[in-house]
Amino acid sequence: xxxxxTYRKIDDTVLDTLTxxxxxxxxxxxxxFAGVLMGAGCWIYQILVGIGVxxxxxxxxxxxxxxxxxxxxxxxxxxxxxxxxxxxxxxxxRNPIARAAETMTVFAVCTAGLFPFIHLGRVWLVFYMLPIPxxxxxxxxxxxxxxxxxxxxxxxxxVSSLFWYTGMLPDLAIIRDRAVGVRRKIxxxxxxxxxxxxxxxxxxxxxxLFFAALATPLVISVHSVVSWDFALSVVPGWHxxxxxxxxxxxxxxxxxxxxxxxxxPLRLIFKYEAIITDRVLESVAKTIVFTGLIVAFAYxxxxxxxxxxxxxxxxxxxxxxxxxxxxxxxxxxVTCNTIIPLFLLFKKVRxxxxxxxxxxxxxxxxxxxxxFVIIIGSVAHDFLPHAWGLYSPSLIEFGIMIxxxxxxxxxxxxxxxxxxxxxxxxxxxxxHEGASHAG
Amino acid sequence: MPADTVSIMGVFSSEHRAASxxxxxxxxxWTIERVHSPIPSHAIEHALEPPRSRVSWFTLAxxxxxxxxxxxxxxxxxxxxxxxxxxxxxxxxxPFFIVGFEFTILFAVLGNVLGLISQARLPxxxxxxxxxxxxxxxxxxxxxxxxxxEQEELARFLEENGAEIKTDF
Lengths: 439, 169
Known about the structure:
The complex is a heterodimer of chains A (439) and B (169).
Chain A: H1 7-16, H2 23-49, H3 64-88, H4 95-120, H5 145-178, H6 181-190, H7 198-231, H8 243-269, H9 278-309, H10 312-323, H11 327-339, H12 347-350, H13 353-379, H14 395-418, H15 424-430
Chain B: E1 5-12, H1 15-25, E2 31-36, H2 42-48, H3 55-81, H4 93-119, E3 140-147, H5 151-160, E4 164-166
Antiparallel strand pairs in B: 1-3, 1-4, 2-3
């Protein structure tokens, strides 16, 4: 399919997506914005009334705010995985989806970054976590994994945003050169005066390579750090050394599923079939099978280690997960994350776009429930039976959660209609260097 | 640019023709001023044989500064508390290494960006003479300079290599 593409066809296909949108587009934007306002309203209500309007209470103090935080950080990971790691490995199927995946990363980190603020309750005291001189001479304690998290997430947001923007520079110049009026002026500034001069390319390719090389260990470290928020405590079900690789694999699993969830409608609406080919989606589907198997191995290892340790508290925690009050959530997690992706082993399934889309949605659901099972399940049922208790989110929490999903999709929908959602330059790089590719 | 010289832009629709023209130009007394390309072309890189970019030094410097900044910041804040918990050291190597690592990546990337914009001299908003908007799409440009008397000869050379000639800038 890619062989039929030319430089001009790539430019035309992507630039066609930037034409003035129809009313239905603005209706969707308005709907998502209403969802964002609803979430913001719930947060404002919580700030005015107090954190007690959420469902968190003894013994479950980490509810949907932390579930959504981990969920969105996880989603953010595959963008960098696809863009950086596959760039280093020179995987050709990366190029059509790298831009959208990087965009997903940036917006997912922004969404995730809101939840620690929301969870704080007294959000105006957030500066306590920043290492700034103050009259109380109180400094953040970097021995706490929560402080590792502040550093890691801030770094990840900065690095992924710079990686995303730097990668867009040549494409912004393409838009600039075809724009007129105010739009041309805006893109002239955004493109930083990019001219495709070889002297610029010489430094750019070197810098981009280092971006990828630095983002790769970062992506692994960030979700490891998120896992240590849990693993460095002594709570049964959390205090385990497998958490870092388990979280990283889960993050990649959920991120890949979200990539498919976003790519399939994008391909359909923007007529990207010649760029985001069936082969590209099939490659992502195969990777989902692989990450699903790693996640399944992690689930099995947790249970095995609990049994092998003969620690009664650990054994009870995992028995209760599978058979206790949250058994339904546990089995949703297992089914959606490990069993359903196995259907992608069949070529007929993974090449059926509709089925692939449904499976990607189910993996997203399963990964949300994985965070529910880990976060809620462990503290709801830890050492002391008299301290056990159940948790259910309040309406305010649901409002904020729905608002966060609306925020992510609101930003993404705005982006894809105003910026190049496929990297034209990287697509050109994948083409055979023929003699008449100028179209 | 000396007063008795002229610049001619050759616009190529093919990467290989542009690379071939560059190869040929390097064997002549004419000077290659600039080359434009819509992609990072290996063929053009081989033809130009440019020196290695120095961006990596900025990245390395950023990484080194970052590691020590992160580690020392964590050690400093911990020393301000100076509380011994469970007999563990106040300046603990393992957790502070994590902070150091994250700062290494952050500062290395910031150094990388600084290196990129300083070495590539970005941003630049003045219009470059001879720039053609097709260069961002699918065409390649080679701007060459020669003495005023050799203008026709240079133009013919570029045309023979498949270029469309631009002199009106």
